[in-house]
Amino acid sequence: MPYMTDHQQKFADLKFHIANQDQLRRRANGGNSILFSYSPNEEQQYIEKAKELYADKAAFIDISELLVQFIDKDGWESFSEYYNDFKNTPHLIFRSDDPTPDLFDLIIGEIERACQRDKIPFLIRTGCLFGTGIENVNIMEHKAVMNLPHPLVIFYPSKVEDDNIYFLNFKIASKYRCTLVK
Predict the structure, then answer these.
(1) What percent of the chain stands above pLDDT 90?
(2) Three-state DSSP class for 82?
(3) Tens of pLDDT along 35-91?
(4) At 179, is the secondary structure helix, strand, or coil?
(5) What separation in angstroms does the CA of 141 have from each of 29, 101, 152?
(6) Rounded Cα–Cα distance for residues 78 and 63 (Å)
(7) How far, in Å, CA of 56 to CA of 78, rounded?
(8) Residues 6 or more apart from 125 whose CB is under 8 A from it?
(9) How far apart are CA 102 and CA 97, in angstroms?
(10) What is the pLDDT of residue 42?
(11) Residue 154 near residue 9 (C-beta atoms within 8 A)
């Protein structure tokens, strides 16, 4: 549905799920996340409306900014060389198990900081995760996210057809332990 006709219902549903976190955990099979689905071409409108509605209650964590921060840490030349060496296994760059902070660590850290400030973490610009080897499910099922005092809200540019969700309108999504607002 276009933004003009369904944004009010989506934001009403989001408000309900945020306010009813205990019910959220039951419906999401123990998960602590809300997947907020919208058409990718309406992303800016949904982000602007969310910032208006949740200005005082939420921390907006922009994945695109964290990606740039991650690349800038070592500089473009170093990143480019490293990426070309590991382009077939991007998870080794963006989500490795070694102690060196990577993009995944930056994301989890920002989510934790939001809750430390008693803010609801909203992940925005999640389309930037495509090609990094980081799946939204990796974030949702992280131990820190599962135990947050507030639910994680993931803005999810996608389409829903039948019982399937397509991230960015083409990549079929896995079954998430979350509540879907569509």
Answers:
(1) 69
(2) helix
(3) 999 999 999 999 999 999 999 999 999 999 999 999 999 999 999 999 999 999 999
(4) strand
(5) 11, 19, 11
(6) 21
(7) 38
(8) 43, 47, 62, 63, 64, 65, 155
(9) 9
(10) 94
(11) no
Give rounded-to-5 percent helix, strand, coil for the chain: 50, 20, 30
Tokens of 86: 């590991």
Residue 30 pLDDT grade (very low, low, confident, very high; cuts 50, 70, 90): low
For residue 149, the 8-state DSSP code is: S
Q: How confident is the model at residue 31 (pLDDT cuts 50, 70, 90)?
A: confident
* 81: number of Cβ within 10 Å: 11
Per-residue burial over 32-62, b if 16 or more Cβ lie within 10 Å, else e, is: bbbbbbbbeebbeebbebbeeebeeebbbbb
Q: What is the per-residue pLDDT for 29?
A: 67
